[in-house]
Amino acid sequence: MIYNDLVNILKDTDRIISTENINRDYFTDGLKRIYGEADVLVFPVNTEEVSCVLKYAYKSNIKVTPRGSGTGLVGGTVPTERGIILDLSKMNKIINLDKSTFTVEVESGVVLNQLQQYVENEGLFYPPDPGEKTATIGGNISTNAGGMRAVKYGVTRDYVRKLEVVLANGTILNLGGDTIKNSSGLDLKDLFIGSEGTLGVITKAFLKVIPKPKKSISAIIAFDALELGIESVNRIINENINATAIEFMEKKVIENTERYLNLKFPCSSGNSYLLLTFDGETDSEIELNSNKAKEVSAKSGAVDFILLKDKEEINNTWQIRGALVKAVEVISEEEPVDIVVPIDKIVEFIDFTKILEEKYKIQVVSFGHAGDGNIHLCVVRNGIEESLWREKSHKLLKELYCKCYELNGVTSGEHGIGISKKEYFLRNTSNKNIEYMREIKKVFDDKFILNNNKVYIQ
């Protein structure tokens, strides 16, 4: 019945797929571990069609699960209550680049690397740089994705000027403005950034871009112990070295990724590494900062410092960094974690993961964005029997998230909460805060149509 109704509304059978013909990939996310079910999969091509679908769903009390590329890692695109999957991937136009205001207007289905390449060809730069480059802009906004350049340039929220969103009842809202400053009432736009599709469906975004840096180099700093590398990060930041990215990785996860990609990491010294990027307008500017980083890291116990200037070598190195999670996933089931703690608490938190690793006899691989405290962990199954894995990994994760909040951290830095982190988020977040989140949900979606049973919704 839902299929026939939507065909009558949209007048197009090619973009409406009934449940028995839906590819199972649309029932899950990037991890392909949690699966749901749906009655219909719909591919709208413009905002008006999104509005029509939502008006119908609202009137008929049908649940709707929005999705983009489906690259998420926490079950945010899994349809838990059947209904309609609203796939926005065909809304993928870059509509306008305005160089006079440094803004670009895009539909929400535009893929991140498509946008980055487009603006860079025009001499501009879109800084947010999460590891998954095939994610859509709508998905990046819905999770407030950060990525590797956040330490210098900030996160997705810092680049969203305006949004077009469609509410659960089909109402189209335009939020934000063209101006840099805005102190004119509540900024509703910011509510939708990071809301994981629970308040409305993002259909268009007006994003800030900046002039493209003319020069860029990267550096690898090797340490015998991960703790020494992490401890050096505060010194690097305090020296005002202005690194674009400061990543940390352990040798064992790099070696695994080298095999996965058939690429060679340029450094074999030490047991852990910091990977830094410096960008700017001149060679002298970025070399000055890289030299400062070399001096500071030497005082922190670095055993090697390698400056990468060759473009292919830089690209290969960052490709290795970007594939760390996928490489672990290939050899074993793993639970990805993206906890954030204050920068000065990173070492304490990493030390705690080692205690839990020994306590539960489960491997925990560490890497992440050292410059902003965003710690990525892979809790690795390594052949543990299914029921025992579920029991032990659940206990380990409960302790991890409790420790995170004890250190004044938060559950997620950029993956979002979705389904898989919901228990830990609700357990460690004040009841009053959750109550207000749910009240805000009711204002925008009083029938709880959109992406229900996710984040803060029970």
How does this structure look, described?
This is FAD-binding protein. Keywords: FAD, Flavoprotein, Oxidoreductase. Its cofactor is FAD. It comes from Clostridium hominis. The protein is of the alpha+beta class. The protein folds into four domains: about 90 residues, Uridine Diphospho-n-acetylenolpyruvylglucosamine Reductase, domain 2, CATH 3.30.43; about 120 residues, Uridine Diphospho-n-acetylenolpyruvylglucosamine Reductase, domain 3; about 110 residues, Alpha-Beta Plaits (2-Layer Sandwich); about 100 residues, Alpha-Beta Plaits (2-Layer Sandwich). It has 15 helices and 18 strands. The strands form four sheets. Strands 15-12-14-13-17-18-16 form a seven-stranded antiparallel sheet, with helices on both faces. The protein has a five-stranded antiparallel sheet with strand order 5-6-10-8-9. The chain has a four-stranded mixed sheet with strand order 1-2-4-3, with helices on one face.
